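User: What would this chain look like folded?
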Amino acid sequence: MASLIVARAGMLTTVQDRGRWGYQGLGVPVAGPMDWYSHALANRLAGNASDAAALEVTLIGPELVAEGDVVCVLAGADFDVTVDGTSVPGHQPFTAHSGSHVRVGTRRAGARGTLAVRGGLDLPATFGSRATHLVSGMGPFGGRALRPGDRLAIGTATLTVLPTTGHSAAQNCECPGSGAPLTLPRGGATVRVVAAAHRERFTDAAWRALTGARFIVTPQSDRMGYRLEGPALSHVRGADILSEPMPVGAIQVPSSGQPILLMADRQTTGGYATIANVITADLPLAGQLAPGDWIEFAPCTHDEAIAALRARHTSLAGLSV
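Assistant: Here's the prediction, encoded as structure tokens.
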């Protein structure tokens, strides 16, 4: 069985699949990719099912050594990717022959890339998922980020497997899938929101501030959530509520008035009122933000949110929107 050996781990490289859905009622967090679109696209281009386990690379990428010939694709953030020093393009499959070093180097735009391998990563599953949840320590390797020496076994299940030829370390391969890459934010992004269930617990001035001001992603942000800095959002009543389920993209507002955007590693329940939810179609843009980037929130209707999600899936399928 082919595999990848971690020579250098990068800043934060984790194994992610679609996530651990169906167990939130038991308090089990979902995890999964910060940018679901690029995760699905990388797998599609590699010929995998869209929920196959892959690597999520954050800000500074890893160096991996191939054991056996492997076909890889990097989608999402714009990184300089090389195989034995030879550059390979993003969003296109490439072959790393046995013994080759795959290095994810300089980052030019975006914050997170998905490195998919044809066949998917064949690692132990927990509650039916190989997603890494850092806070609970759930997932492969004890639910932690990768370390040097980790061995990533590669499976054999693919949707479409096309032959690859050539003897160079970095050989472009015929692409078994298609799809448009995500348009990456550069310094910040505007994402669309719909009002949350607790909208009435906030003043109208708070809603105007949320949808009219620019917020900064602070260094206290991580996969669990982005702590944002901007105008304080005022409550009509207190910030605390009885704990209730928290979806990805929810914008909680504690008593400080500074919002928190919940992301992939969010808790299953929360006790702060939520003013809005980022729509599913725009979560990939939020997932590509790094500390220091700005974020703006534009209101939209539920019908517009559904239409935007349909457009995302159309783009993922490589069709005209």
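The CA atoms of residues 196 and 276 lie 4 Å apart. If you want, I can go into more detail on any region.
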